[in-house]
Specification:
The protein is of the alpha+beta class. The protein is built from five helices and four strands, in the order H-H-E-H-H-E-E-E-H. The chain has a two-stranded parallel ribbon. The protein starts with a helix and ends with a helix. The model has no long low-confidence stretch (mean pLDDT 80).
Length: 158
């Protein structure tokens, strides 16, 4: 990449920071911290998520699911608050699951709450792990893969 391209990108970033006044007042207003995580913010986030969902096909009127319908929830992030919130929300890089609010539901727990835990089979499919060390200096590794067909069979047997 030519140095001129890098210089132009840096110039644009610095211009925005200048226009926002970040060189005169680089620290955020501490009083605004009390506004993070308010119920109003959660409601707006929920509305945005609901409005962004797209149902591609509802074959045989499968949806909405019947209360006794069996559901397979799969994917290594389906039971993770870290993945729902992502980095820089509650903690640096968002990697400390124990620091997230205990009253929030993961995708898995939300589906169990709606469909009934007895109707839900959860299989992560893979396991995402980090090596030892600070979360911002260690890479993420996919460690284990599982048999998806076995997951489907397990869900059908419940």
């Amino acid at each position: 990449m030519p140095q001129t391209r890098i210089d132009e990108a840096v110039r644009r970033i610095l211009r925005v920071k200048f226009e926002l006044g970040l060189f005169e007042n680089p620290m955020p207003n501490a009083a605004l911290k009390s506004k993070i995580g308010l119920p109003e913010s959660r409601q707006v986030a929920l509305q945005a998520a609901q409005e962004s969902m797209t149902l591609l096909k509802n074959t045989d009127d499968l949806l909405p699911l019947a209360k006794d319908r069996k559901v397979l929830v799969t994917g290594p992030t389906a039971d993770s608050l870290v993945s729902l919130n992502n980095g820089w929300t509650y903690v640096w890089q968002g990697s400390e699951e124990s620091l997230y609010p205990k009253d929030r539901l993961t995708i898995r727990r939300a589906i169990e709450a709606k469909a009934g835990a007895a109707n839900v089979t959860y299989l992560p499919g893979t396991k995402i792990t980090r090596g030892p060390g600070p979360s911002n200096s260690t890479s993420t590794n996919v460690e284990v893969e599982v048999d998806i067909q076995a997951a489907v069979r397990a869900a059908r047997c419940r």
